[in-house]
């Protein structure tokens, strides 16, 4: 792998179309900025409709190319496994690139990159396991079967918070099934996706099977989601953008798989070990500086332990180290975007205006080495929160948690479900009956009990309500990226005259 952080620094990064890196047709580029300093560190190609058309054409040609279309399922699986091992060999380099691009902790991106090959291997193993069905039919000498086949070109629009990890969960099964792909990464974090494209080429995938177009949503994203040559879209990001993509796709009657916003409830009952619950809440909302869709940003605490819990949460939050993402002793790095920092500050201010109080954090760090242009924000605890306040209703995507008490299970369930979103949820209790009741009543695609942010590519996950639709992970995702074809075969050797009625 030739790409490194130093090779990207100050460079112009091209598009990856039909197996090679190319310049954008119009010659336009966009600056990408380092979240730790706020300074430009490379330029990315600003693809337009012509570039997107070229990428989709390459993907469609590759889908029809016998080198890919006629490749056996077992051989496709082997190719995905080869990519897995290239990712494993270059995991630390990919991690360094992604940390520089979005400010996520290096120890976290390393863990993600080192675990990603397991996901590729898992889906590679499914390449020759995707089976159809033989279905009974009330006609003799007739065979009725369902076949599973790839969709065609899949358009993938990925976010800036965990670009490669979130891409892997859909790219690996798509390739294992035999689809081709056009990826549009967020313009705020493209470098690691382009580096992965280099590894895809090295692995030996036929040209055009995977393409990467970079640029803004208004230009590259809009062109991709309106293109009639795409068979399905996958999007991870905000609900507002998801609506726009779904609307564009509907013009061509193209399905989508959406993982959208979240405002996940994190519930703490009085029977738990306080320290464990506090650690769980801190992990659930402050990890990755709160820049995760499943962040447990609404915290409901049983009234009997509310004051004690708040004191413990404030004390634990005070020990969180905000710092450079490359340092091992840092707990929270910067926010990925300057606009995101402004958004977080705005929601905290609106919460205070609505009557909530800042119990911890609530400002940019004053450490001298972090105040010089970086987009840092202290982990923030807001008390006296109400479920109808703006900062408790909207996804902030930053290190801010609102905490409020509840009296009993019925009130807790009502509060937890009182949201437009339904992505994830968590409960802390020693009462297994209560935990199961919660899991049964909560309107969320994922329920964690006495843990939070645990995930596995071997299980399907996704959202309810405005958190999206479609599932990722597990065998379920193989059905998301394949289509069902019914085949009926008459093997009687004779076709009856359709206009002659024979009575029994």
UniProtKB/TrEMBL annotation:
Residues 23-487 form the Aldehyde dehydrogenase domain. Its EC number is 1.2.1.3. It holds the Pfam family Aldedh. Transmembrane segments: none annotated. Keywords: Metal-binding, NADP, Oxidation, Oxidoreductase, Plasmid, Potassium. The active site is at 259. InterPro entries: Ald_DH/histidinol_DH, Ald_DH_C, Ald_DH_CS_CYS, Ald_DH_CS_GLU, Ald_DH_N, Aldehyde_DH_dom. One of its GO terms (molecular function) is metal ion binding. Belongs to the aldehyde dehydrogenase family. This is Probable aldehyde dehydrogenase protein. It comes from Rhizobium etli (strain ATCC 51251 / DSM 11541 / JCM 21823 / NBRC 15573 / CFN 42). The lineage of its organism: Bacteria, Pseudomonadati, Pseudomonadota, Alphaproteobacteria, Hyphomicrobiales.
